[in-house]
Amino acid sequence: MLNWAQQFNIFCFLDNHQYHHTSSTVECLLAVGSIRQLQAPRGEGLNSMESFLSLEDEWVFGHLGYDLKNEIENLSSSNEDYVQFPDIFLFVPEVVILLREENISIGDFNNEADLICKQILNSSSSIRPSPVSATIKSRFTREEYVDIIKKLKDHILKGDFYEINFCQEFYDNNIIIDPLSTFVSLGKMSPNPYGAFYRLNDQYLLCESPERYLKKTQNHIFSQPIKGTWSRDLEDEVRDNENKMSLKQNQKERSENVMVVDLVRNDLSKICEEGTVEVVELFGVYTFPQVHQLISTVKGILLEEIKPVDIIRATFPMGSMTGAPKKRVMEAIEQYERTKRGIFSGAVGYFTPDGDFDFNVVIRSILYNSASKYLSYQAGSGITFYCDAEKEYEECLLKVEVIKKVLTN
User: CA 379, CA 140: separation in Å to the nearest integer?
Assistant: First the structure.
């Protein structure tokens, strides 16, 4: 399918890698081409989104960039953006392919499903690995990172905020890669339940995210924030299980998780019926190829007449990628980080024809601009007053270790 999809300048491929604990309804979704699209001027994204979705009863795919925050709060973004994804992009695809374990469905505007199936089968040659040899640089030295964490802890001590997700960027500003083979290599080494291969002309997202932002099914909404990370021991099953228990019992990781759960509960309470917001799982330990994670699940029943844009305004950006209180930490993120997040810590996903939706959190991802040859990936962690700056730096490296391996052979 992906070989066939590459003929299109716009496509979105979503893959749950056969994880069965994520309430997914399909194994893979592929949307290609664009019948209609929304790419709003900066500052008008959410209003334009509301108008765009009100006219559609088709599948809609696309992304929400982190800097939509400026339309939700009185905020700004002045750091450099080298990858250049727009703040928002939505499109009605020419073709939608749903792949389930037992069948495949193809829908298109020209009623040529049989022809499309033949074209896909004829293009199904294996994807050969394309060696990558990136020269990865960082926006921060270890010493600079540690110094900033000290400043953030001073803010916490003064009461400015009590947790902040601080991110750093790694990059190569002169590299040519084959996005498809790089995405396949990343997926083989680190499959995660919210994988996405997304192209918007010259911009590519190669994403293997473990985190869901929001899912809406009829009048039910739920979020699954991640806070809490522990390394795997792939050589020793006993020690790996011990690591899981260490994560489950670690007070620092649990306190981070509780903070973001409270933030999500507060966000959902703005758009849900009174008394319906509840935590259905707290401190769930989930295992992924390189790390164990603490994931909690919060759900609620939506108020009548709530529109998708109302849900986005109430909950975006997601608390796991900001901190609390949300507005103040986003000001600090802008002050101390050195590049725009762009699509990183935003969301990619889809709206169904009947108004449901599902979006991930864009983390564990490679961003690539093929025109400027700029490649970027970012990583962050939750900073609290009692955190250890050196350990937080190592956690960032752990989260993107596989990405670095893919990019440096």
Answer: 12
Q: Which two tokens stand for residue 146?
A: 């540690």
Q: Is the Cβ–Cβ distance between 334 and 76 less than 8 Å?
A: yes
Torsions phi, psi of 280, nearest 5?
-90, -15
Q: Are 389 and 149 in contact (CB under 8 A)?
A: yes
Tell me the per-residue pLDDT of 49-100, one tens digit each, with 9 for 90 and over: 999 999 889 999 999 999 999 999 999 999 999 999 999 999 999 999 998 8
φ/ψ region of 283 (left if φ > 0, alpha if ψ in -120 to 50, else beta) reads: left
Token pair, residue 388, equals: 């250890």
40 secondary structure, DSSP code: P
pLDDT category at 23 given cuts 50, 70, 90 is: low
Helix (H/G/I), strand (E/B), else coil: 38: strand
The tokens of 125 are what?
A: 């040659």
Strand partners, 62: 90, 349
Dihedral in degrees, nearest 10, Cα atoms 183, 190, 297, 266: -60
Question: Sign (positive/negative) of CA torsion 175, 179, 185, 191?
Answer: positive
Encoded tokens for 185: 């290599």
290 closest CA partner among 145, 159, 165, 192: 192
26 or 120, which is more confident: 120
Q: What is the rounded CA–CA span in Å between residue 183 and residue 383?
A: 30
Q: What is the DSSP string of 63-106?
A: EE-GGGHHHHSS----SB-SS---SEEEEE-SEEEEE-SS-EEE
CA distance 304 to 273: 8
Q: How far is CA 327 from CA 70, 233, 243, 306, in A?
A: 10, 38, 34, 23
CA distance 368 to 347: 16
- Amino acid 103 reads N
By three-state DSSP, how is residue 6 classified?
A: coil
Phi/psi for 56 (5° steps) reads -110, 140
Alpha carbons 88 and 198: distance in angstroms, whole number? 13
CA angle 320, 325, 331 (to 5 degrees): 90
Cα–Cα distance, 308 to 300 (Å, whole number) = 15
Q: Six-digit token pair at 137?
A: 């640089």
